[in-house]
Amino acid sequence: MSKTPAFHLGQILTYFILIAGSITALIPLGWSISTSLKTIDQLAVWPPQWIPNPVAWNNYIDVFQQIPVLQYFGNTMVIVTAWVVGGVVTCSFVAYGFARTQFKGRDTLFLILLSTLMMPYVVRLIPLFMIYKELGWINTFLPVTVPQLLGRNAFYIFLLRQFFIGLPHELTDAARIDGCSHFGIWWRIVLPLSKPALATVAVFAFQAAWDDFLAPLVYMGGNPDLRTLALGLFAFRAAPGQVAMTHLLMAMSVMMIIPILLIFAFGQRYFIQGVTMSGLKG
Amino acid sequence: MRKLQIVLLVSLLVGLLGIVGTVAPQEEIVLDFWNWWGVQREPLMQEIIGPFQEEHPGVTINNVVQGWDRRAEVVLTAMAGGEPPEIMMATRAEIVRFAAEGLIVPITKYVEEDGLDLSAFYPSEIETMWWNGELYSMPMPTAGGETSFYVYNKTLFAEHGLDPENPPATWQELWAASEVLNQRSGNVIDLMAADIGVSGNAFLSWLYTNNGALYSEDLRSVTFNSPEGVETLQWMYDYVQTFYGGVENHIDFMAQTTGESAENPLFQGRQAIQFPNVSIFGHLATFAPDLDYGVALRPYNADNPDARSQGIAPLGFGWGYVIPAGLSPEAERAAYDFVRRITYDMGEDVKGGCWFMQEQARPSPLIACNEDPVFYELNPNWDNVKAALEADIALPIVPPQSQIQSFITEYVDLAMFGELSPQEALDLAAEESQAVLDAYWSSIE
Amino acid sequence: MSAPVPDQRTGNRLGGVASAPRTAFSSWFTGMQAEKYIGYVFVAPWVIAFLCFELIPTAAAFFFSLTDWSVVGQWNFIGFANYIEMFTRDRLFARSVGNTLYYVVFAVPLNVTMAFLLALLLNAKVRGQTFFRTMFYLPALIPSVAGAIVWIWIFDTNNGILNFFLSQLGIEPIRWLSSPQWSKPALIIMSLWSIGAGMVIYLAGLQNISEELYEAAEVDGANPLQRLIHITIPLMTPTIFFNLILGIISSFQVFNSAFIMTGGGPVNSTLFYMLHIYEQAFTHWKMGYASALSVVLFLFVLVLTLIVNRTSKRWVFYG
Hints:
The structure holds three protein chains of three kinds.
Chain A: H1 5-36, H2 59-66, H3 69-100, H4 106-115, H5 121-135, H6 142-149, H7 154-166, H8 169-177, H9 182-193, H10 195-211, H11 214-220, H12 229-234, H13 246-267
Helix pairs in contact in A: 1-13, 2-13, 3-6, 3-7, 3-10, 7-10, 8-9, 10-13
Chain B: H1 2-23, E1 29-35, H2 42-55, E2 59-65, H3 71-81, E3 87-90, H4 92-100, H5 108-114, H6 123-127, E4 130-131, E5 134-135, E6 149-153, H7 154-159, H8 171-181, E7 183-185, E8 188-194, H9 200-207, H10 227-244, H11 247-254, H12 265-268, E9 271-274, H13 280-287, E10 293-297, E11 311-313, E12 320-322, H14 329-343, H15 353-359, H16 373-378, H17 382-390, E13 392-394, H18 401-416, H19 422-444
Helix pairs in contact in B: 18-19
Chain C: H1 8-11, H2 24-30, H3 32-64, H4 81-88, H5 91-123, H6 129-137, H7 144-154, H8 161-168, H9 183-191, H10 195-207, H11 211-219, H12 224-251, H13 256-262, H14 273-283, H15 287-315
Helix pairs in contact in C: 3-15, 5-9, 5-10, 5-12, 5-14, 7-13, 10-12, 12-15, 14-15
């Protein structure tokens, strides 16, 4: 490919847009970090300042003294594991069924799957609570892990199903002709080919479980030992008569971003083009 | 025959085990206590729980402090779903509704057994805990002190030529003082003379200082759109236009504040008069210890001969502590004992509700508690605070209250934004509120 | 929409070249009869979860919409009274529908297209790809409680950074959160900061387009724009379809931003449908009525999804 001057211009423009866009995208985070480094009376400075003076690095330590962060972290990881395993394994399993097998009522069932995303949680909350209560699951980890492990996540199933449908049939056809079972196709062919989609699901599942507060609040709220990090944030929120520790709230939020960021950056290696399609050559 | 003997023997054994099981004494009573006393209040609560557990061996209290966000979902799901905690901190509106449906137990009989003297509480405080002839809780903290007083910056008063010892007592005096104090450049309020509030709750607070009322005596009709009500809303609107330049400027001014923190404009010297609730004193001590402030009663309308300073209790909350139905007699008794400890108990060396309030420099719903000299040390204005509590009257609550208040909020908003006249707004709100109220009364009759 | 399945008659070659272990178990999996039922095995976990945790709550919503259930009380059958009240007496119903439609009409197309453009940009061979992708995904990671505080500051009329930039361009301060006209646009703008998630999904889809196709097209003389229109977009239609459907479903349920930041105001200008449902259910304890509202939303979104799905047969290309 010859590099014409126009080509250079396109690159410069691209970089410009990316850099400008990044800065814009980072404004909310920048303000969060700035607030997280302020002392409590600095929050009141009017008009609001970007650079705190003095810089309160100790906020990040204070968070650990205010709430049992490590315990909450452990609890959160239990839920996160269930979500990620459920998403990557069970949801891909179910998605394969919708994408690559034929059975009666498949498309209707898929529509039912989609429709589960459409009923607002508000009116399902209490009946679902009663179901969990009958099962004796209230104030345990079960309501926030078992359904996920069973694949109760239409979002990921839908995502993976779209992806699987788009996979070329030549490979799977060849395997079928060779007598490979559907299970084998799923495990040996479709999954390895779907690394970008699976990485996406893993990252999304991690983030959803990490930040989810409603389910832990309602179903496990009576047991403070099971609290997650997202619930820990609530301790710093303003409540009537209560001091709002916004600086600690921001410090904790910033810290909570880091693990997801690492997972995301780590998962980027599955987003390299070309690796996944090598099976088609020859 | 052999089979029959075995069956009989087994049934006998099972029966015996069953009897033994029920007769065996309850070793441990564990009570979950859901409350919203978070952050700096949590260790205080632990100091109450400790001695209580020592005095009541076999009883354990779990102090489950919840986050404030999404409180409604947590509380309603627990109560409706059938897994409520043994002691729950509830608002007065919730208490009324839970009681009406029989989800919580009255404590009248325990109070009588213990021989408690309920006149130890301010009338407006304890009145709010009765429903249909039964008592369901006792108050802590105060329901009052929410709308009955204001705090003002004496230094700012002096700087602007106003007498710091003679703060405004009437609407008219407040207006005059605001003309001197208020500083606004265009749309930006540099110094807010007074935050009179622009919401439906603010309207109700001012309504009662104009001899208006939310309901009629028999609670069958809404009366807030009376001439007094319209006059009140008109006065509020005129104030907002004159001193804020429109309700939008008020929203912008308040955007960065939450009140209970260093961002409070009163603490920063950007506001002269504020109408807070009683938790302000603790925050003043923490964030603005050098502020020279005074306390006075909410101004009343001098043009109305029947008007006087009074607050309503509660407007927002009115916290009580309720016990759900379905507990064993021992657990229920223990739960009541704890409720009594955090509300009624006071005295030398007793860490109960009174002590809890004193530690936060907040007044207590117990009259005698507020006589303690420690309050006077913390707050030279203490006499005025007590006067404010005495000026509170109990706001009646009916189950559809939340809907009526939301109609008032909605239409007051529209009036403030200039889309409706005060008369139109209140009449429309009254129409809808009356419909809801009528529906409620006809459903129980 | 359905993938062609290999001819069953030629698939049954138990004696042929083996690439899978020959156990009795797998034989069952590959038998001709099994082909009809194997799909059920695959979807079974989800079906179990559905029957246990979705079916009853959803049916309960339909059921209670016909009652006056007040969460903690006895409920009575009132037939369709809730639905009648909704359409005749509830002013806020019409208001919330209008607000939500406004939001959906702007937010969905903006989000779907901008995420796509961003993904295209970040799929090109630029240096620091991972870095930039992370930067754009970051805003979506801020917990909502913290994010709300930050955005209230960004939108502040007198000191917010957005009005600061606008003032550099000579524009008067806009009352983002304190006026009924600008509150919805403010929330729509805020939603754009979360396009990182959609971008990630598009990126995953883009990985699957073979380099060979692009190379072949270049050889044939196609310029970048033509490659975009004739290769990228058609092959991305399944992913676009996904983002579109999900965008519709989730923006009709927009809730968090209004709940935390504006409380539905000013003057109910940000009272979205979900917020209306929430208030009816948890503030006024009118769960029966809230159920009726939910059923209406459910049916509306379902019908809309079906329509989009039907049209998708014409523009979604499943290769």
